[in-house]
Structure formats: structure tokens, C-alpha cells
From TrEMBL:
It comes from Variovorax terrae. S-adenosyl-L-methionine binds at G82, L87, V133, E134, R146. It catalyses: guanosine(527) in 16S rRNA + S-adenosyl-L-methionine = N(7)-methylguanosine(527) in 16S rRNA + S-adenosyl-L-homocysteine. It is found in: Cytoplasm. Belongs to the methyltransferase superfamily. RNA methyltransferase RsmG family. This is Ribosomal RNA small subunit methyltransferase G. The gene is rsmG. The lineage of its organism: Bacteria, Pseudomonadati, Pseudomonadota, Betaproteobacteria, Burkholderiales. Specifically methylates the N7 position of guanine in position 527 of 16S rRNA.
Length: 214
């Protein structure tokens, strides 16, 4: 049994997520990669492995079931904006091989880390992009973010990347009523979904958004 495998498996059970042994191994390998390269790439301020498991891996794993419910298992394209070390993008790529995941970050080292993780974890459907999201024009079915920006900035900076029928998935702490009130006119929230992250005593939610029908 690898270090942290038991708490990871307990967390997956609490989230009702069924993953293969290979996927559990990839999640542990991914966390090892973050720890190994953190000093060089400055990926995260969270240093303790047990904290990294709850604050980063399990927190990101909490969006997998809601995302799958949204996609219904269809093969879609997802853009993770301001992905940093790949959260939640890499976790989604590990859990959902049918989703083609692009992680964009303005910091070259972070995008390089994602590329490196894609090779090391054998995730051919994962790529790291070094760019400001505002400059991207390819379209995605789901545009996600975690700890990125206000909802208004997130949707306006990434607006050109959202497919016609696409949705935004914003990971937030407590229900961001002020940010929702400040959204641009053409955008609407269609669901705010409370999340429970195993081992994390903090409020978490997903804000689902889309363009208003004109
Ligand atoms: C606080 S970090 C969050 C990283 C990761 N999503 C997480 O949850 O740990 C925000 C990231 O957004 C990136 N970023 C900031 N502005 C950006 C932009 N306009 N386009 C793409 N990435 C951006 C930063 O470089 C940073 O890595």
C-alpha cells in the first residue's frame, strides 16, 4: 500500500467515486509529481502531503461526479482556466478519459508542468497551454476554474472559448452572492451546487453558468 492510498480511497468512497486501481495509482503519482517539482515550478503553497491530498486532490475530485452528471459520459472538450499545477484539470483528465482536457496558465513553468504530467501519467488527452485565456479562440464544451478570479472576470476573459451550448463550471468556497450579482448581463447562473469535500471543514460549491438565450 502506498503512502496516502488509504485516505485517498476513503475519500473516493465518501465521494461515491468508483475508480480503477490504475486511476488511483495515477492520482498518487500526480501528487508525487507536484511534490517533486513544487520547489522548481512553485506550483502550490500547500506543502504537507496529507494537506495536499485534502486541499487539492479530494477538493478537485469533488467536481468529478457533478461534471459526469452534466456530460452524461459524452466525449467533450474541457478548458481549465488558470490551472496552476493542474487543479482541477489533471484530476478530471485522470478520472474521465473520455474528456479532452486543456489546462491554460499564463505562467510558462506551470503549463510545462502539465505537459510533463501528461507524459509521465500517460494521459494523451491532456495538454498544457501557455497563454492568457483572453487570447484563446478554440471552443470548449465546459470551461472550468478553481481559485482563479471573480465570476465576472472569469466569464468575460474566457467568453471567446465557450462553445455555443457550452457551460462554465466555477469552483468556489461559500455561495458567492456578490459575485453572482456582478455578472455581465448576457450570463446567467443555472445552478449553485453545494459540495462536501471529505476531510475538509470548509464550504465549497460549484457555480454553473451559461450564456443567456437571446
Ligand atoms: C490561485 S492560482 C489557482 C491554480 C489552480 N487552479 C488551483 O486551484 O490550485 C491562479 C492561476 O491563474 C493563472 N492566471 C492568472 N491570470 C490568468 C489568465 N488571464 N489566463 C490564464 N491563467 C491565468 C495564474 O498564473 C495562477 O497559476
Amino acid at each position: 500500500m502506498r503512502a496516502l492510498e488509504t485516505p485517498l480511497r476513503d475519500g473516493l468512497a465518501a465521494l461515491n467515486l468508483s475508480l480503477s486501481d490504475a486511476q488511483v495509482g495515477q492520482l498518487l503519482d500526480y501528487q508525487d509529481l507536484i511534490q517533486k517539482w513544487n520547489k522548481v515550478y512553485n506550483l502550490t503553497a500547500v506543502r504537507e502531503p496529507a494537506d495536499m491530498l485534502t486541499h487539492h486532490l479530494l477538493d478537485s475530485l469533488a467536481v468529478v461526479a457533478p461534471l459526469r452528471r452534466h456530460t452524461g459520459g459524452r466525449p467533450i472538450r474541457l478548458l481549465d482556466v488558470g490551472s496552476g499545477a493542474g487543479l482541477p484539470g489533471v484530476v478530471i483528465a485522470i478520472c474521465c478519459p473520455e474528456i479532452s482536457v486543456s489546462c491554460v496558465d499564463t505562467v510558462a513553468k506551470k503549463a510545462a508542468f502539465i505537459q510533463q504530467a501528461a507524459v509521465a501519467l500517460r494521459l494523451a488527452h491532456l495538454r498544457g497551454l501557455h497563454a492568457r485565456v483572453e487570447t484563446l479562440t478554440e471552443r470548449y464544451d465546459v470551461v472550468s476554474s478553481r481559485a482563479f478570479a471573480s465570476l465576472a472576470d472569469f466569464v468575460s476573459w474566457s467568453g471567446d472559448t465557450l462553445a455555443e451550448q457550452g457551460v462554465w463550471l466555477a469552483m468556489k468556497g461559500r455561495h458567492p452572492a456578490d459575485e453572482i450579482a456582478a455578472l455581465p448581463a448576457g450570463t446567467e447562473v443555472f445552478h449553485v451546487e453545494q459540495l462536501t469535500v471529505p476531510g475538509l471543514d470548509a464550504e465549497r460549491c460549484i457555480v454553473w453558468l451559461r450564456r443567456k438565450a437571446s
